[in-house]
Design goal:
- It is a single chain.
- The chain has one domain (about 15-160).
- It is globular and about 55 Å long.
- Strands 1, 2, 3, 4, 5, 6, 7 and 8 form an 8-stranded antiparallel sheet that branches.
- By secondary structure, it is α+β, with helices and mostly antiparallel strands.
- The protein has helices at about 20-35, 145-160, and strands spanning about 20, 45-50, 60-65, 70-85, 90-100, 105-110, 120-125, 135-140.
Length: about 160
C-alpha cells in the first residue's frame, strides 16, 4: 500500500458529507469546477443536477465531468437525499462514484460506495503509467473525501516525478 495516499488514518469530528442547503451545495461544486487549479479551463467541465426518482423516493442526482490538466478526466455521480427545513431545500449525498482516468491510458483513482454494502466506502488508486492498482482500502463515511480532495489526489497521482 502507498501510505501517503491512504485515508484510513483520517479522523474527523464532524461529517463533511452532512446536510447542506441545496443552494450552498450547488455553489460549492460549481465554484470548484471553475476555480480548482488542477482543472483545464480550455475544456468545459460540467455538473448537472436532476430529479431522481429511480428508487421510488424523491432525490437529486448530481453528475458531471471535470477535464483536468495532464489529460485527466474526472467523472462523478452522486445521489442526494433531500429534506426541507422550513422553506429551505437541504441535500446530503448518500451514494458516490468518482472515477479519474487518463484517456487511452487507464484509471488514476476511484472512490465509490456503489455495491451491495453502501456503508463500505472504497478507495482505489492506480499507477497512471501502468494501470496497476497501488492502493485498495475501505473507509468510513467521515474518511471519504469531498470533491476538492478527489481533485487534489488526482493531481498528486499524476504529478511528474521530481528531477
Amino acid at each position: 500500500m502507498v501510505a501517503h495516499l491512504s485515508r484510513s488514518g483520517i479522523v474527523r469530528n464532524n461529517d463533511p458529507h452532512g446536510w447542506n442547503s441545496f443552494h450552498n451545495y450547488a455553489i460549492i461544486h460549481e465554484k470548484l469546477l471553475s476555480e480548482h487549479l488542477f482543472l483545464d479551463y480550455s475544456l468545459p467541465s460540467t455538473i448537472i443536477f436532476r430529479d431522481d426518482r429511480s428508487e421510488g423516493i424523491p432525490r437529486i442526482r448530481a453528475e458531471g465531468v471535470g477535464y483536468c490538466r495532464r489529460d485527466v478526466i474526472l467523472e462523478f455521480e452522486k445521489r442526494l437525499d433531500i429534506r426541507y427545513r422550513g422553506n429551505i431545500l437541504q441535500v446530503r449525498a448518500y451514494s458516490y462514484i468518482y472515477v479519474a482516468r487518463i484517456e487511452g491510458v487507464g484509471l488514476v483513482l476511484k472512490y465509490h460506495n456503489h455495491h451491495a454494502n453502501p456503508a463500505a466506502y472504497i478507495h482505489r488508486a492506480y499507477n497512471p503509467l501502468t494501470g496497476e492498482q497501488i492502493l485498495y482500502e475501505e473507509l468510513t463515511r467521515s474518511q471519504f473525501p469531498v470533491f476538492s480532495e478527489v481533485l487534489d489526489e488526482a493531481e498528486l497521482l499524476t504529478r511528474p516525478p521530481a528531477k
